[in-house]
Structure formats: C-alpha cells, structure tokens
Amino acid sequence: MPSEIDREIARADAVLNRSRERYTTLNARAKKRRDTEILTRVGRIAGAVGAIVIGAMILGWFFPLGMGGALAVMALLIAATLFFGLSPASKEVAPEKFGEAPLASLPLRTEEWLDRQRSTLPGAAMPLLDSIGMKLDVLAGQLRALNEGEPAAAEVRKLIGEQLPELVKGYQRVPDQLRKVDRFGQSPDKQLVDGLSLIDQEISQMSTQLAQGDLDALATRGRYLQVKYRGDDEVSGA
Q: Model confidence at 6, in pLDDT bands (50, 70, 90)?
C-alpha cells in the first residue's frame, strides 16, 4: 500500500502537472495573439510601402523626382513603417461595446480586454485572471451552439460582458494609495480578488451546465437510436 509520503508526492505531482498545462496553454494563447499582431502590422506596412512605391513610380513617369523627390519618398517610407509598426494591431473594444458583439465572440473580447488590464491589478489577482482566461476559452467553444434567445445567453452576457468589466473598472477607479487600506474589514485589493474568485466559479458552473445540456442531448439521441434501430431489428427478427 502507498504510504502517506507517496500520496503527498502524487498530489504534488498532480498539482505540478496541472500548473504546467495551465501555463503552457496561457503561453500558447499569448504567442498566438502576438503572432497575429505581428502579421497584421507587417501586412499594413507592406501595403503602405507598396502604395508609396507605386505612387512614386507613376509620378516619376510624368515629373522627374530628382534627389529631393527620392529623399521625400524615403522619408515617407520610414514614416509609414514607424507609424504602422508602432500603431496597435487591433482597436481595443471598450466593455460598453461588448453588448454589440456576437455571443460566441464575447468570451474572447472579454479575455483580451482583461489581459490588457493586468498591469493595473494586484499580483494576488493574477492566478484568477489566468483561470478565468482558460475558462473563457472553453466557454467560447460552447457558445457557438447556443441560441442568442436562450436565457443562458443573457446570463453569460451579463456575467462576462457587464459584471466582470464593472468589477475591474470599479477597482481601477480607486486611488493607488487606498487600494490596500481596510474599509469595513476589507481592502479594495481583497474585494477585487474575492469578486474575481466568485466570477471564476460562476463561469465554471455555466460551462458545466452547458456541457450537461450537450450530454443530455447526446443521451437523448442515443436512446432514440436504440429504440428506433433495435426496435426495427426486433420487428424484422420476429
């Protein structure tokens, strides 16, 4: 029989494996976002450079550019490269606009917005942000099959499109020097962490409920097939 030490080692290994999987997933998501941003910037730079070069060539057919024109074109190329290289690859969507997003894209928008707020949030909130981000990834896949008119859709929108951003924005409005000061037994830092923990649990429950609905539908379909085809076999066998 395994000893208590063996069981503790096994539990520690399980925790380590879960942590490794979590951070691998987080790093993969971050790398995918970075790669997408880089490709977007490169595409914009290439388009701008191409337009400038073609414009200069057409203009050169009619009016000799000379040294001054060549320097002007070079300056435009440098300016376009710097502008599109430093500009954000995608426009940040404000939480107030989340209600306009299709339901299936809402978790990703919320996750991206939440990632941009990390630098303004306390270190104690980071594990919860990681956990919420992973759950939002799972939820995004589940929401593709959810009808916008379902009550569950409204609950999802309210939780991750309204309540989660409102919690974070409410914390950000608190002056830095007051965030660790206890007020009525809790500091704003603690209130934020507790609120994120509750939201993390709620997202997990929503995901479980949606999965349960899929499992129920699968079981119903399975029973239907059994009744239909096994019933047909019994009739034909008789």
A: low
